[in-house]
Amino acid sequence: MASGNIFLIEDHDEALRVWRAQGIKGLDLLHLDAHLDFDVYAACPISEVILKARSLKELKVGLEKSITYRSFQGDFSKQLNIGNYIFPAMQEDIVRDFYWVVPGGSRDLKKSFKLLRRIFKDVFRHPVGLQSVRFSAKNACVKARLLERNFIVCTLDSLPFLDQAVLLDIDTDFLITSNLSYADATALIGKRKPWIQPLALASVLKTKIKNQKLVTIAYSVNGGYTPIVYRQLADELAYSFAPRQFKKQFIRSKKAAGHFGAFLKTGEKRYYQKAIALDRHYRVADNNYGPLYLSTGQLAQAEKEFLKVKKVDSGNCACLSGLGLIAFKRKDFNRAKRLFLAALWYCPGALFMNVKKEVLFNLGQTEFALRNYEAARKYLLWLKRLEPMHAQGRYLLGLIFEKAGDFKMSAKYLQDSLRLGLMRVEALEKLFKIAWHLDNKNAIIKFVRLRLKGLKRLCKKSENHAFMKNALRKNNVDKRRVKRLEERLLKTKKEVTHA
Fold this sequence. Notes:
alpha/beta
């Protein structure tokens, strides 16, 4: 929704679309968010890769990513998401200097310096032109030079007065994340509450900014970053900036929030229906804490959340999908299949497209677990058409084609999954085994050897890197299996040499 120079958006990357549509050029960006949203596209046109590469290694890695992406997706701009929309805005000269205003006060920022260093290291591991980073405890800010522009991290109280025209970009999760330590959506599940109210935030910003050229405010409910009970804070913030333009919207939003709050307290269907009649987004996947509990392995808590919504909305595909995944994790595959099929039936329209993709993958892995390989293949190929970059889906297709004895197609899909970023030693083991059935055995073994080398580097880096360690844990990367596969490859190499 838009009014004048204020735009309400669902997901934060929509801000880039707004800036482009409004013809914005060369303005400083004031980004209020618990997240940086500055990731760099993994793949870019080959001409850019060649220009940016600072070493032969970077050139090789960049070329592989770009060629892989081009072969699967085609359009590099489709990489855009909520975590990477600011970097292209800077590349397109929409954004000049960048101010990341983080939640909390100056003391919180100083405590977060170690975390910020890690964030900077993660984000700027790509050759994007980072020139310098300086942490200043005195001024409670972090300063860097990037692409010939200033990059400043500060808090509301350390934000300087800006007399130039700026883009003001606010994520609602800024209001309910008290400091960067709780930026992960799974932190404090069900216990978050605003540390600053919309009216107070608007008042501070009005004293700090002389000219806000354009304002974007993201609800950010999708993904659980803003709990749905605080969805209305975005409308209240828009109202705080422009009461006349957003009065009706805020009243409606507040009413919907009241009905949904009454549903959460009583569990009564009438309140739920009144809320979604006023705002259909109260029906989305993250209208409960189930997805967050599920992602942290708290199955009983997740089930309770899903069942509460399912009781009043039996056709909610996200809840059916969540319950299906719980059944799958409990190895009740027949029940999981029934729930996933029901979810697929109730997945129409763009609002639930991401749920539909998840359901197709989960149906694929459920049918695979039930040894219904042809049915699994059908669902995974359907997923492939909707989401060409789904690495796990391609891995499962590789296993299915191996079962059918089609080793050529199996090797193709397993290689695809690894090129798309899958970090699973099982895929390498399987590919190594399949290689012996194929004419291009040596080329595949060489591919396995190179991928294993990369996985080994990640294992080594993860020893002092919590983010990488967590990623490897999620992908069940066992260092002992990595070592065993390395020994088998070495043995093969010696055998070939002696022959």
